[in-house]
Amino acid sequence: GRPGDSLPPVDFEEVRTKLAERHKRLAATRGIQDEDVMSSLMYPDVFTDFADFRERYTSSVWGLPTWAFWKSLRSGENVNVELEHGKDVHIKMHTVGGATGDGHVEVFMEMNGMPRTVFVEDDRPVMGAVGGGSTKRRKASGAPGSVGAPMPGKVVEVAVKVGDAVEKGDKLAALSAMKMHVVVSAPVAGIVRAVEIDKGDELQNGDLVVELE
Known about the structure:
By secondary structure, the protein is an alpha+beta fold. The chain is built from 5 helices and 12 strands.
């Protein structure tokens, strides 16, 4: 008889329901298609890996050139991605910020000329200090008076010193970042308790700039 005669019966709709429960994002964005049901039955492990990948990176990765997907973009490199017919997005890579402490890094880029920031998993190898060591900067604590760098950049101006009184919105420092002049302002009024930077310092996102009390 036919090969299928010896196989146990399968409830396709039950399989579809289980796939929707297992792959919620995929189900919400495109639905569980007939080919998904069949693929999961014939190649369960392969389909699960593929579906997990699509949920993690979304279905838009198909538009990336192969070199950009496998090697990623370097600072200053550009890529065009066709999201759908007649709808393209131009991406320009700027820089990768410091680690956030939860296994992610902040990535700064432009999309169609507009600055964008995204957080991605940090899979970079841990590198040792170069040239005999490097200074590990303190990070802003998140308290109102703990002011951190809003993005990676070079300090071009230090506008306050210890003991200065500042009002909310006063300039504390300025950075040169992504070809922009970025002002670091006081989020609250207070007295400058500590200045953690000097002109010319290279900062990462979240590095402590000034402490207010």
